[in-house]
Design a protein that fits this description.
This protein is α+β, with helices and mostly antiparallel strands. The protein has helices at about 20-25, 25-40, 100-110, and strands at about 1-5, 5-15, 45-50, 60-65, 75-80, 85-90, 120-125, 130-135. The chain has an eight-stranded antiparallel beta sheet with strand order 1-6-8-7-3-4-2-5.
Length: about 140
């Protein structure tokens, strides 16, 4: 468990996405991550922020952090994620694909009653070195 400060992300949106490995490993998400990487001269961490809407659906913003909305490139969207408490998942090697690994851990922990999800913003980070971290908003 960890606390995250409020953060602003800017990037490209994929509407009505079900958070999980299937979406994250899709061709669409690979394409969006590549477009975000192309905006930067140096390698960057790419975050996918899963944002719930009033109907209970999620929109995903494949993005990088920014200091201000005015810093977000024209044509991109931005989302402000409030501070919160998150369960942190990193690959444990049970499943070869690191993204599938972390999402499988979330599913197992939720099914076993070990994780009480808040169903607020969840953040998946693929670092510039290819490591994966998954932050799931939780009820404490």
């Amino acid at each position: 468990m960890t606390a995250r400060s409020a953060e602003l992300f800017g990037g490209l949106v994929a509407p009505r996405i079900t958070p999980g490995a299937e979406a994250s490993t899709s061709e669409l998400f690979r394409f969006l991550r590549e477009r975000i990487r192309d905006q930067h001269l140096e390698p960057v961490d790419i975050s996918t922020v899963y944002v719930p809407d009033a109907a209970g659906d999620y929109n995903a913003v494949v993005a990088t952090p920014f200091d201000s909305p005015s810093d977000v490139p024209v044509g991109d969207v931005f989302v402000s994620v409030p501070s919160g408490v998150y369960a942190v998942f990193v690959p444990d090697g049970v499943i070869q694909d690191p993204v599938e690994d972390v999402w499988a851990q979330v599913e197992d922990a939720t099914a076993n009653g070990e994780l009480f999800r808040a169903y607020k913003e969840d953040i998946e980070v693929v670092t510039k070195t290819g490591e994966v971290e998954l932050y799931i908003s939780i009820v404490i």
